[in-house]
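fyi for ur records
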Amino acid sequence: MTRFSSFAEAGRLLVPALLALPDLQDACVIGLNDRGALVAQPVAEVFGAPVVRVFVVSRHGQKLADGLPDVRDRNVVVVDDGVETGSAARVLAAALREQSARRIVLAVPVCSAAQVAPLGELYDDLVALSVAPDGLPLSGHYESFDLLS
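which gave:
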């Protein structure tokens, strides 16, 4: 199992894989929720963009992406601290497609094995440094899962 010392380290380790993908210049970098924004910071620095923090919230029994910028005809890199169930990543992918984003990439340090194929169908590219067995909690992949790490 891959363990990351911090959210920032996880983000730094995502950078080479993202730079290997073609056509991501001028990408909007979205940090999914608070921890995702911490992982996204090193990615955003390389792309010369700010991190846009987006939250998946429930309103009237429906999950929505809150804080989503205008991404029409833009490349978007969605960064999260990892994927267990994939529910937030699915909500965000649908919102980005609805806004006609040009290309969307999901970049995570760790992804549950069961979510790789379904999310790979929703995103143009999926970058996952580690694929975890199902049922393993995301927190187990970090030395500290504290927002201050």
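The chain is about 35% helix and 30% strand. thats all i got for now
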